[in-house]
Structures are given as C-alpha cells and as structure tokens.
Amino acid sequence: MNIVTELLPDTFLLQPDRFDDMRGSFVKTYNEKLWSKLGIDFDMKEEYYSVSRKGVIRGMHFQIPPEDHKKMVYCLGGSVLDVLLDLRVGPNYGKFASAVLSSENRQVILIPKGIAHGFLALEENSLMLYKTSTVHAPEFDRGIKWDSFGFEWSIEAPIISARDQQHPVFSEFDKSCFKKI
User: Fold this and answer.
1) Tens digits of per-residue pLDDT, 13-28?
2) Active-site residue among 30, 61, 69, 136?
3) Each residue of 56-80: pLDDT tens digit?
4) Residue 90: domain span
5) Which of 81, 90, 140, 152 is the most exposed place for a label (fewest CB within 10 A)?
6) What is the CATH number of the domain that holds 155?
7) Active site residue 130
8) pTM score, two decimals?
9) In total, how many domains does the chain have?
C-alpha cells in the first residue's frame, strides 16, 4: 500500500497493492502493521456499505465529539466522486478536496476526525464501503448541505435524500465542536 497524495491535512488517498492472476484479483485494503509504518493510526469499530444509483449525492456527513470518528472509504463497484470538507478550526477550515474512487482504481481514502464526507455516484449501483473508528451514534450525527460550501458537483438534477436536503448550510455551521488542529 502506498500513499498517493494528502488531499487535506491528515486525509490520505491510498493505493492498496493489487495481485492479479488467472482467477482474478486480490486487494488488501487494511493491514494494521503496514498502516502503522505509514504513520496511520486506525482502529476500526464499525463497517457498512451503501449502493447508490447514478446521480445520487450522499453527504456531507460527519459525527461530532465525543463520537467523532476516522473513516476509511472505498468503492467496490461502479465509481463515485468522493468529496471532503475540512470542518476543523484552523488554517484549512472550509477547504475541500475530491477524488474519483472506483472499482477500477481501487483507491482508498482515510478521513480523519473533523472532515465532512460525501459523494456523487457516477455509475448505476455504485457500491461504497465504509469503516469507522466509532460506532454510529445518531445523537452525534450531523451534516452540511451538499451545495453550500463552494464545491462544483457538475450535476444539474442530483438525487438527494430529504435528510440531506435539510442539513444546515456551511455558513451556519457551529465549528466550536472541533478543536484546532
């Protein structure tokens, strides 16, 4: 596994090793010892996945302290435009980054605490897998409205849940819940 780039501070795009033979391929997405050598600390507590239709936007989601979490995401089927928004108090507050994740590139994003996460499904049945360092806690679950922080999603009529439509806009976010980095 290699670090491809740092999308935002402590937010890494990773390329796992891939092994191909006549049977197909094998990809190891997590190895505690290897991640430790790369300086990455991740203790998984929960795993889940979503399947999305083309044109679906999910996000921008995060949990606040004390149940905030690191998140590891990757796309096992189809492709997504993965989007990250820095909510941590400091010089990168409000900065965003994105990367295309797909079943073809098999890249992984490691997202630290204090980063809102969302994505646009670029293909039908895009399958996203999430691993988190805390268990989902609905009372600490929050979101930022997907179109309120300056990111250009490049889609005219996205499919968005009622819940995600009702998230507060970025300018109204109370950033005091995240400590300075």
Assistant:
1) 999 999 999 999 999 8
2) 61
3) 999 999 999 999 999 999 999 999 9
4) 43-177
5) 152
6) 2.60.120.10
7) yes
8) 0.94
9) 1
